[in-house]
Amino acid sequence: MVELINEAHANGCRKFKACEELNISQRTYQRWSKGGTVKEDQRPLVERPEPKNKLTEAERKVIVEVSNSKEFADLPVSQIVPKLASQGKYIASESTFYRVLDEKKMNTHRAKSKEPVKRETPTHIATAPNQVWTWDITWLNAMIKGSFFKLYLIVDMFSRMIVAYEVWETENAEYSKRLIRKAYLSQGIASKDKPLVLHSDNGSPMKAATFLATLEKLGVQSSFSRPRVSNDNPYSESLFKTMKYRPVYPNKGFKDLNEAREWVAEFVRWYNHQHLHSGIKFLSPYQRHYGLDIEIMKKRNETYLKAKAKHPERWSGDIRDWTLPEYVTLNPMDTAEVDNYLNQQSS
């Protein structure tokens, strides 16, 4: 490698560029060629002596035998090592036990209980409004300590628009059924070819049998977050934070249900029509939901182009990017995953 770098440098190539091509750092090259000679004993491919602390085959065999003994066969390594220590025995560290058993393909679930299930991350992609909705219930403070009103709210994932909401005093599956019917009819999506996806967490109103039956009747596909993973419903959670961190949010609580409903109605009007959402290039959710965004972005782009043409010396690069995202994902996905998902949906 040193000879190749020296040859490239002699032909006019910068040394750091040659090092990048060979996937080594410039500091490594300097260390290898210190004093003008190649230090072969410092090369990474040189044959090195075995480390002094390496386990012998006999010691590795003891780890396997102890782990499979009648006393420890049903215990995980995290319990085997402490038990051995209590008996005055030390064979190897816990990490070494894991490494040896893993090499022997024996590092498996060792108890009678079911092996933990790794749940797949829920994934949905919206390329237009009314393809994926997310919904949740949040508690609104009442003036009486310990009392709360419950806000049921559905938001469109693509446009971030609130498509339906209700405020009640309790959590109830009947209110959930009313909410989804209200949203479904208001958006006029009964004739959609593909089923609408409704994503939520695992609360009892979301998983009630009567509510799920209503979704099935409407042709809505239910989707749920992983248990105890709040990040799987980010759009609803983010909306609730926006609401409760508003300067006008009544932190001391609402005096009654009517006041709570009036305040929420005003918030929804502001959020849908006036709030410029950073996730959709500072458009209002209403503009994005009903296709007004194309003309708005076209006008913004033209405005910036005119400004740059008027004073090009004030622009060091391109104008601000006003391109709208083509899709929105429930959880982060790379481009290959998105393409694969969309291909499956279209097939």
Structure commentary:
With 347 residues, this protein is α/β, with parallel strands linked by helices. It folds into three domains: 2-42, no CATH class; 57-103; 120-347, Ribonuclease H-like superfamily/Ribonuclease H (Nucleotidyltransferase, domain 5). The protein has 14 helices and seven strands. It has a five-stranded mixed β-sheet with strand order 4-3-2-5-6, with helices on both faces. Strands 1-7 form a two-stranded antiparallel ribbon. A hairpin with a 5-residue loop joins β3 and β4 (162-168). The mean pLDDT is 88.
Structural class: alpha/beta
Helix-strand pattern, N to C? HHHHHHEEEEHEHHEHHHHEH
Strand content: 5-15%
Please state the overall shape, judged from the principal axes of the Cα atoms: flat
Major β-sheet strand ordering: 4-3-2-5-6
Helical stretch count?
Answer: 14
Q: Helical proportion?
A: 40-55%
The biggest sheet amounts to: 5 strands, mixed
What is the residue-averaged pLDDT?
88
